[in-house]
Structure formats: C-alpha cells, structure tokens
Design brief:
It is a single chain. This protein is an alpha+beta fold. The chain has 16 helices and eleven strands. A six-stranded mixed β-sheet has the order 1-2-6-3-5-4, with helices on both faces. The chain is globular.
Length: about 425
C-alpha cells in the first residue's frame, strides 16, 4: 500500500508496503547533484557521497560496513546531475538498523581529513578509469558540447585537480547548506508497518533542518562539435539533439519514438546499420532527461573506416523517420515500454527508487496505471510531431578515437537540413 506524508521538519516520506516480502529497501534521495555546483567545486557532490560512508560520530567506516553486512544487508549510494541517493536493502527484521545507519551518515558524518585524502585517491582512480573508457568519455563530451559553460554540461565526477583541492570543511559546509529537509525524500518499500516507520523517521531525522537555498541554473541547450583524436581501435560517436525533460508532455512519445529508431534489435538503426550493412558493433538511441531539459542521443561504436559510410546512413535514417512510422512499430514499442515498466515495478528496491524519483520530479508518485494510459493514447502523429521537434534542433556531434573519417560538422548539419 502506497502512502505519502511529511515529517514535522518538512522531509517527505513515501512508504510502499508489501506484506508478502521478506525484505525492505529504504533510503534518502536528495535533489542535489552536479548541477548545483560552481565550476570551482565541480565534483563535490560525488566526493560527499563517497565520504558519507567514511565515519560518523557513532561509527567508523569499518563499523558502517560491518553492521550492515553482519545482517546480510546491502548499502550503497550514487550521484547524478540532479540528485544523490543513499540506500540500504535489509531483511524486514533489520529495518531499524538500516534506517539508523542512513540517518547517521546524513547527519553525523565527520569528513575526517585523513580519510578524505585516501578517498581522493580512490576517486581519482575512478576518474582515470572513466577517462580510459571511451564509450563513457564520449558522453561527457556530448554533455559539455550540448550545454557549454553550464553545470549541466560538466562531469559528475569533476577533475582530479578539483577533487584534490576539496577540503573537509568544504564538504561539511556543502552538506549543511544543500542537504535540507525540503530537498530530501525518504522512500521505503517492502514488509513493514508504515505508521511505525514514520514515527521512527521523525526521531531518526530530527537533526535535518530547512533554510533558503539557491536552486540550479536554468538549462540552455547549444549544441556543436567536439572531436578528440585518439589512437583507439574504435570510433565512439554520439549524434545528439535538444531533447525532452521528465515533465514535458512529449516525454513518453519521445521514449516510444526512440524505441522505434534505436531502442533494440528490432529498431530501425540496428536493422539497417548493424544487421544489413554491418557498419557498427553497437548502435542505440535514447532521451537523457533532466527536470527542465534533455538530450536526445544516438550512440554508435564503429571502425575507423566504417564511420565514413555510417554517418550519411545515420542522417538519412533520421530524416526517413517522420511520416513513416507504422502502427505495427508503434504497437511493438508500446508493448516493450509497458513491459519494462511493469517488470521494474515488481522489484522492491526499484519501488523505492521510482517513488522517490517521482516525488522529486513531479511532486507526487505517478500511478503506473496513469503512465500506461498515457502510453496507450499516443499515436503515430504524436511521434511525427516529436521527431520534427527534436531533429530540427542544432545537432551535437561528439566523437572520440581515430576520427579522420568522421563527417564534418557542417556536412552533418547540411545532410540533416539544419540551417541554424
């Protein structure tokens, strides 16, 4: 049973109970991420997420790990552009322990200078590993080109130079400034008593307060060209466009259009470019949404010579999309999207995350029946409008690898009919 309420300090609480489950997934989702950072501290949200597990007033870093693993639980966290999450999954009888640990790390973390120096090394290894992973780096290149000189376009992890410059006091100040009750969602799913859990949360999070805080800067899509010549075996390439936000009326129509264009083995891009022509190892399309913006992206991994033939075919497939989507393709895309939604909803841990994300993005938990009805109502004409809306925007082209045969940016614009 789903319930949404608010604690006395302003934190919102979402409970989704299931008496048939033996487990509980719970956590806190904070609507703060890399998008809330100034250039000088880019990456601090990610550093903070790491350091939250490195010791509190009550527990050392080892005790945090041991206490949750002693009962077979799982604890983890992640940082995004617009939110940071801290969560545990435990057996139902260990709910109180899981809640206490999450509340402890969010209110009593010490940010010990010695632990911070060690963790900076770990984070820099993570950054260097990403820099050595071209199919990840090309996404960062796309973001910084689509949204230049904006927090939304900067990397979540930041740079090693910035990470090494961050101090314990900066972390504490950032946490106390940004982690306020109005930005925090407690979400729990599984087998527990919702009323009793709310009482526990009132006590556990009593130290979280509220104050005025600056929001994220508005997004401004620009687009353009970013090329990095590197002696890799493969060209990693993204062709992007101004996309759709989470709250846009065309959000689900965009997902359906993407599924038809490049959303699986039956998609047009996969069939034409991978299966028929053998030009890529992988190709896919997707919309990357944020609260007020998005980027529609087509990613391809291809060979140094194959990329020359790939680019015009890719552009032509985009141009062919509008006006040619069939009812059969739309029905298949709807069935895939509906099935994914329902399959995800079966997992207790996914419940907690989806409910929290809905609360941050929409201010409510959106019933899956409402989503399914919205999906069912979409027509091929709706998809044509979305295609026209997206693919007439200025392209973003990001490429990494042996790129000498990648089509010029001006030629891509001309091929797509973009006139500026």
């Amino acid at each position: 049973m789903l319930s949404v309420s608010k604690l006395s300090n302003g934190m919102r609480l979402v409970t989704d109970t299931d008496a048939s489950s033996d487990t509980v997934s719970l956590g806190v989702w904070v609507s703060v991420g890399a998008r809330y950072e100034s250039p000088e501290i880019n990456g601090i949200s990610h550093v903070l997420e790491h350091m939250a597990f490195k010791g509190t007033l009550k527990r050392s870093a080892l005790q945090i790990s041991e206490e949750i693993e002693n009962v077979g639980g799982i604890i983890n966290a992640y940082t995004g552009k617009e939110m940071t999450a801290y969560y545990v999954k435990v057996l139902k009888e260990d709910l109180a322990l899981g809640l206490d640990i999450i509340a402890d790390i969010l209110q009593n973390s010490q940010m010990d200078a010695g632990e911070l120096e060690k963790e900076k090394g770990v984070i820099c290894q993570e950054i260097n590993m990403q820099n050595d992973t071209p199919d990840e780096m090309v996404f960062d290149y796309m973001s910084e080109t689509a949204f230049p000189n904006q927090a939304l376009g900067r990397s979540i992890a930041g740079t090693c130079d910035i990470v090494r410059s961050i101090t314990s006091q900066q972390l504490l100040d950032y946490m106390h400034t940004q982690y306020i009750a109005d930005r925090m969602i407690i979400s729990a799913s599984g087998n527990f008593d919702a009323d009793a859990f709310k009482v526990m949360c009132e006590s556990a999070f009593a130290g979280i307060g509220n104050h005025a805080v600056k929001g994220a800067e508005p997004a401004h899509y620009v687009g353009g060209d970013k090329r990095v010549d590197k002696a890799n075996e493969q060209v990693n390439l993204i062709l992007g466009f101004n996309g759709i936000s989470y709250t846009d009326k065309d959000y689900y129509a965009t997902r359906l259009m993407s599924a038809i264009l490049g959303g699986g083995m039956s998609s047009r891009l996969f069939q034409e470019i991978r299966e028929k022509r053998g030009l890529v190892y992988t190709i896919s399309s997707f919309n990357i949404p944020e609260s007020d913006a998005g980027t529609f992206a087509i990613y391809a991994g291809t060979g140094e010579k194959e990329v020359a033939e790939l680019m015009p075919v890719l552009c032509d497939e985009i141009l062919k999309l509008k006006g040619t989507i069939t009812d059969t393709e739309l029905t298949r895309a709807k069935n895939r999207l509906k099935a994914r939604l329902l399959m995800n909803a079966e997992a207790i841990s996914t419940h907690a995350e989806m409910n929290a994300t809905d609360m941050i993005v929409h201010g409510r938990v959106v019933p899956k029946e409402e989503i399914i009805a919205d999906i069912a109502s979409i027509t091929t004409a709706d998809l044509d409008k979305v295609a026209d809306r997206i693919f007439t925007t200025r392209p973003t082209l990001a490429s990494l690898g042996p790129i000498k045969h990648v089509m010029s940016y001006d030629d891509v614009c001309a091929r797509l009919g973009y006139k500026g």
